[in-house]
Every structure is written in C-alpha cells, then in structure tokens.
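We emphasize that the prediction below concerns an isolated chain of 86 residues; any contacts that depend on oligomerization or on bound cofactors are therefore not represented. The input was used exactly as deposited, without trimming of termini.
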Amino acid sequence: MQFDSKMVHTYLRLVHDKNPLHSHIVPGQLVCEYIFQNYQLTWSSFKVKYQRPIQINEKLYIQKEQQSVKVFNQQHELKLIIYNRL
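Result of the prediction step, given as a token string:
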C-alpha cells in the first residue's frame, strides 16, 4: 500500500483539508478510509492510535487481526493502529 502525492492532494481537496502538515505527510483519516474500503472492515465503532507520520510515497503493509489493523512501513515501524470498539 502506498499513497502518492496525487492521491493525497485529491483527498485534501475533497475534504477541504487545509492543514499545512498534510502537504508532506499522509492524512491518517485517508489511510483509515482506504483500509476500511479495501479490507472490507465493517466495524461500526473504532479507535485510531497514530504512532508515527506516514510520508507520501512510503511503502506500507497491513497486519490485520481479529479486532485491530496495524500499519507498518518497510522498516517495520508501526505507523498506526485501528482498534474495533465492540
């Protein structure tokens, strides 16, 4: 999984996000929305714990567990965790 600058800037325009940090890093909400769509998560309530910024074009991989999804980079640094709130 990877988010390029075109995808990030399109997302920022769609959601009217003017946060200057998001010109250099991927918005966490974009990552969450991508995961929910592409990994068929149907949790009605969830919590996100942001660990480290995700850089544009950074290669990521997902570790999906029963009640959480973890996002890591290629150096195995944990970037964020999405927890199911039962």
